[in-house]
UniProtKB/TrEMBL annotation:
It is found in: Cell membrane. The keyword Membrane applies. It comes from the Bacteria. The keyword Cell membrane applies. InterPro entries: PG_synth_SpoVB (IPR024923), Poly_Biosynth_Transport (IPR050833), Polysacc_synth (IPR002797). Pfam families: Polysacc_synt. The lineage of its organism: Bacteria, Bacillati, Bacillota, Bacilli, Lactobacillales. Keywords: Cell membrane, Membrane, Transmembrane, Transmembrane helix. Its main location: membrane. GO terms for cellular component: plasma membrane. The chain crosses the membrane at residues 12-29, 49-67, 88-106, 190-207, 234-254, 286-303, 324-345, 357-376, 388-406, 412-435, 447-474, 480-497. It is a multi-pass membrane protein. This is Polysaccharide biosynthesis protein.
């Protein structure tokens, strides 16, 4: 058991580090992209981004997570192999239909987004969905065996290729070779081209693994029956996991179809409205970077729910991961809010929209909690329908709140609408389970200590940032310097208070990246 726990934890951090690196790249490329093409050019690129986001959820996180759980439940290797073929075929048919619909209705979607000239970008992104069957099924297959390396390597490779194409398109725009729409089309085509590289890596890895699979098959009677085990309510669970792992994408969709018009309704002209939407979209890479931690934990938690007769053993590991994940998400949220003007200036040259982005960062903590709740309770068929109803209510709340808040508060209203809509789901799920914290091992003391640690760290960092800002002229270089000074201080405060209030056990400390070194540095004892 200890070996499997160690393997699960190692697998979590392999995928986490790869995801963090990918999301770090995703945040970094937006710096030259926004600097070269400006806020309007950034808007042109980002307006179609939710389509790529759905592809990313299907290929990188949502589908692989639930597929890995289903694969892990199979009793024989032959059954797992048969399931892989059936899953691939089903996804292939579905994704060909999706690609066709997006391609033929691209002009209509672009019109609804507020700019009919965006339709080539919609078509460019639609091609990426043809790769989902390869990426999702193979990643799910590997993750079911806690083999995270193929998912990690393919994910990083895909992102690198995509970013090269995006930056290349931006440079061609900067030199006058591309207009803003051609730049957006080529930049968004990076999803398809990068995906081809990822598929190549996954297929090569699978062919290597297939030799082991063939040997294992020889030891199993092919003539005997090898039934594919499917849980009752599997379809609902698939929808649930895919929907909730990509929850922020659906809010971005609503913003893509509503924010521009609502800003113009408030009296802002089209050009300025597009710039404001571009500023609002600055928050997306930071949000993704934070949420990727919880998604990586979910990726490893799901396969461990495979055997009900080992629930008590698995429960212990899951509870540790839940506590550590929430601890990290609070640290990220509090830190980004405290550093927001400097982070914004460092990445995007100025502090425009910093208050709006600070509000937006609350989503990291809320969505991380939602992802964990959904992962741990996804097998509860009786309540899964209620969760989907909550999701629908949340989307309706987002639409209504956008209409109410954006004309009054601008892009800050959009951020408030997103956070409040996420709270509909979070508190709704907690109400469904009568605020029972036991299955997550979240006692009242831990939750209160987590809130206190986050607030204290944020306040201290904010004071340090204010004092440093008074001593220098606030620009990009000085913002980099302030962040370099404030971030380590904030991290040390957070670690020290966590140790002081004994919030994590030694085993939970060791789950952290470089956990053994941190336990030695912080002198953590049992």
């Amino acid at each position: 058991m200890q070996k499997e726990v160690s393997r699960a934890i190692k697998g979590t951090w392999i995928l986490t580090i790869a995801s963090l690196f990918s999301e770090l790249l995703s945040a970094i490329y937006r710096i030259p992209l926004q600097n070269i093409v400006g806020d309007r050019g950034y808007f042109i690129y980002q307006q179609v981004y939710p389509l790529y986001g759905i592809f990313s959820v299907l290929a990188l996180s949502g589908l692989p997570v639930v597929i890995s759980k289903t694969f892990a439940q199979q009793d024989t290797i032959i059954a797992k192999h048969n399931l892989l073929k059936k899953t691939f075929n089903l996804l292939l048919v579905s994704c060909v239909v999706i690609t066709g619909l997006l391609w033929f209705y691209a002009k209509y979607l672009a019109f609804l987004m507020g700019d009919p000239n965006l339709y080539p970008e919609v078509r460019a992104v639609s091609l990426a969905f043809l790769l989902v069957p390869f990426e999702a099924s193979l990643r799910g297959y590997f993750q079911s065996n806690l083999i995270m390396e193929p998912s990690a390597i393919s994910q990083v490779s895909e992102q690198l290729v995509r970013i090269v194409i995006i930056i290349g398109s931006a440079l061609l725009f900067g030199r006058g070779v591309f207009d803003v729409y051609k730049m957006g089309t080529w930049a968004n085509s990076g999803a398809f081209i990068g995906g081809i590289f990822a598929v190549f890596i996954l297929v090569i890895w699978f062919l290597k693994d297939k030799s082991k699979l063939d040997k294992a098959k020889l030891h199993q009677d092919k003539k005997s029956h090898h039934p594919i085990k499917l849980e009752h309510g599997l379809v609902l669970e698939v929808v649930l996991i895919v929907v909730f792992t990509g929850i922020t994408i659906f809010y971005q969709f609503i913003d893509s179809f509503s924010m521009l018009r609502l800003l113009m309704h408030a009296g802002i002209n089209l050009n300025q409205a597009e710039i404001q939407k571009g500023i609002f979209d600055r928050g997306q890479p930071l949000l993704q970077l934070g949420i990727v931690l919880s998604l990586s934990f979910v990726s490893t938690i799901m396969p461990q729910l495979k055997e009900t007769n080992r629930l008590k053993q698995n429960k212990s590991t899951i509870q540790k991961m839940v506590r550590v994940c929430l601890w990290l998400s609070v640290a990220e949220t509090a830190g980004l809010i405290a550093l927001m003007p400097q982070i914004n200036t460092m990445l995007f040259t100025d502090a425009s929209g910093s208050k709006s982005l600070a509000i937006y960062m609350l989503s990291i903590m809320i969505v991380s909690f939602i992802n964990l709740l959904i992962a741990v309770t996804s097998g509860d068929d009786e309540k899964n329908v209620h969760k989907l109803i909550l999701f629908g209510m949340s989307l309706l709340a987002k639409i209504a709140l956008n209409i109410i808040l954006i004309p009054k508060f601008g892009i800050a209203g959009g951020a408030m609408a997103t956070v409040l809509s996420e709270c509909v789901i979070l508190f709704g799920i907690l109400i469904i389970y009568n605020f029972n914290r036991e299955f997550l091992s979240l006692d009242k003391k831990f939750i209160l200590s987590l809130i206190k640690v986050g607030l204290i760290m944020a306040i201290v960092v904010k004071i340090i940032v204010k004092l440093l800002s008074m001593a220098v002229i606030v620009n990009r270089p000085s913002s980099v310097l302030i962040n370099i000074i404030a971030i380590p201080i904030g991290a040390l405060i957070y670690l020290s208070l966590t140790k002081h209030w004994q919030m994590l056990t030694k085993e939970e400390w060791e789950i952290l990246p470089m956990g053994k070194y941190i336990t030695k540095f912080m002198k953590i004892r049992e």
